[in-house]
Write a structure and sequence with these properties.
about 260 residues; mainly alpha; about 0% strand
Length: about 260
């Protein structure tokens, strides 16, 4: 496939097609898992305004996941629709990053996880914003317009907790420490990602995107005197080996589907 933008999947060679499917699945699963997880904050956020804000963010993420799953269903063309891809897999088959396996926890955990994920996702979205596969580029353009507000919102909260001192800062530091080993798993290498780069779908390898992300968040961590996350251990497994916390979440978000498999979004 050349770098000319097209929506014709027939132009994709088999390796690039499989790699694109893995990219779409990883992005969709990330958005779906964090969206559903954060929807659980409704009614228990520390402020009424944050109840509304987090519900809105979660709704955005699930909407992004739906659109990405629909692209994937069209790409695979194997009879599985977006609902089937989202709900009918077993926990080991999901390809979200291990950062999102961590349980929701308290407000500091939520903000720490959201800051790490949203900033990483911003770098990833930028890397596919000019994708040669037109359906992805067009969708990402819409997603980025919403995600920039997610980054602004969580960045303001990270600063608020860090500068508050006392228990608020201690909880934030503890949360970042717990999440640190998995923080970079958003950039876990994808199978055959070289084909995505060569085909103009992904602007750079995941290792390069991780370096861009670290450059992006570095000044914030330095200014707030927070410890930046280290490289991920076993990065190649960053979207595998899901935890018991995710198995519980999976049982929650598939419960209605199990009751009524014919239900739609």
């Amino acid at each position: 496939m050349n770098a000319e933008r097209t929506g014709d999947t027939a132009n994709l060679d088999p390796t690039a097609r499989l790699a694109l499917g893995e990219l779409l699945l990883s992005m969709a699963d990330d958005e779906f898992v964090i969206g559903f997880s954060d929807s659980e904050l409704t009614g228990i956020a520390p402020l009424l305004e944050e109840d509304v804000a987090m519900s809105s963010l979660a709704q955005d993420e699930i909407g992004h996941a739906k659109a990405l799953y629909e692209l994937l269903a069209g790409l695979l063309d194997d009879g599985h629709d977006a609902d089937a891809i989202a709900y009918d897999r077993e926990p080991p088959d999901y390809r979200h990053c291990r950062l999102l396996d961590h349980p929701r926890g308290d407000w500091a955990d939520t903000i720490a996880r959201r800051f790490l994920y949203d900033t990483a996702d911003a770098v990833r979205l930028e890397a596919v914003a000019s994708a040669s596969w037109a359906p992805l580029a067009e969708l990402v353009g819409k997603i980025r317009r919403e995600e920039r507000y997610h980054v602004m919102h969580v960045g303001a909260w990270l600063e608020r907790l860090a500068l508050a001192g006392g228990e608020a800062r201690v909880r934030l530091e503890d949360a970042l420490e717990r999440l640190a080993p998995d923080a970079a798993t958003v950039f876990a290498p994808l199978r055959d990602e070289a084909a995505l780069v060569a085909g103009g779908i992904l602007a750079a390898p995941m290792n390069d995107l991780e370096a861009r992300w670290r450059t992006m968040i570095g000044p914030t961590f330095e200014r707030l005197r927070l410890t930046p996350p280290p490289p991920a251990t076993e990065p190649e497994r960053g979207r595998l080996d899901h935890t018991a916390a995710f198995e519980w979440l999976h049982s929650e978000f598939t419960s209605v589907r199990r009751l009524d498999p014919a239900a739609t979004w």
